[in-house]
Predict the structure.
Amino acid sequence: MADDEIILSELDDEELVLQMHDDLYDGLKEEIEEGVNILLGRGWAPYDVLTKALVAGMTIVGADFRDGILFVPEVLLAANAMKAGMAILKPLLAETGAPRVGKMVIGTVKGDIHDIGKNLVGMMMEGAGFEVVDIGINNPVEKYLETLEAEGADILGMSALLTTTMPYMKVVIDTLKEKGMRDDYIVLVGGAPLNEEFGKAIGADAYCRDAAVAVQTAKDFIARKHNKMA
Ligand code: B1M
């Protein structure tokens, strides 16, 4: 062991979180897994580990990617490290034992392969008691429609991270309208380049800024749907 090697378990919480941001930046998957386990072992809530250690770290990666300091291979390594940390947290976030409150089909739109945010939303929705059918990335309109019908879903969730792919959400919503299916589903959209105005303009029920907002919005819409039926 090198003299200057950092022992994660010897760091206090604040130092460890900062170190995890660095490790995420460097794409160090095993260190991220270790850090997540240490924080959980210290009694941290899984949601806090997710937001304070992982999502906050990924925000730094995103800024440097934007500024041309990091490139695709480095960002992929960071994304893999993030996913490894999320895999540990997933069952814990889903462990609420809440009754199933509704079913959501979620996927990233055609032309877009970003899936970290989508996965996070799916995890948080499961944690809140929703059944989640994740159809992955690069989804054409046909895939959304056939899955919604086959699964008898209540909610359609779409994710897009590129300004070039976000308009595809409108293609999906317009097709739902053309087929007379629009009112059968609550349509929620999200992704970094979107905003509320865009959500309204394409005819979605709501734009969700982050995973926590997605959960709350889904709960509100499901409650309204049940009230209407009562
Ligand atoms: Co991409 N990429 N990328 N990338 N990438 C962005 C999005 C970018 C903003 C980076 C930048 O320039 N700053 C930029 C887009 C610019 C633009 O369109 N204006 C960009 C680019 C340009 C590209 C490529 C074109 C790069 C290239 O090849 N030259 C390429 C495109 C590939 C493609 O999709 N066709 C590309 C590739 C990649 C990687 C493969 C390297 C990797 C993806 C790995 C993966 O996802 N498996 C990657 C990554 C990691 C990023 C950044 C750095 C991080 C995205 C992320 O995971 N964020 C990103 C920069 C950034 O966003 N700051 C960037 C963390 C995640 C938790 O947040 O996804 O926003 P986010 O999700 C949030 C909310 O948005 C919301 O909740 C989530 C959790 O709170 N949300 C939803 C998201 N989806 C939702 C769905 C909902 C509700 C809420 O449904 C109900």
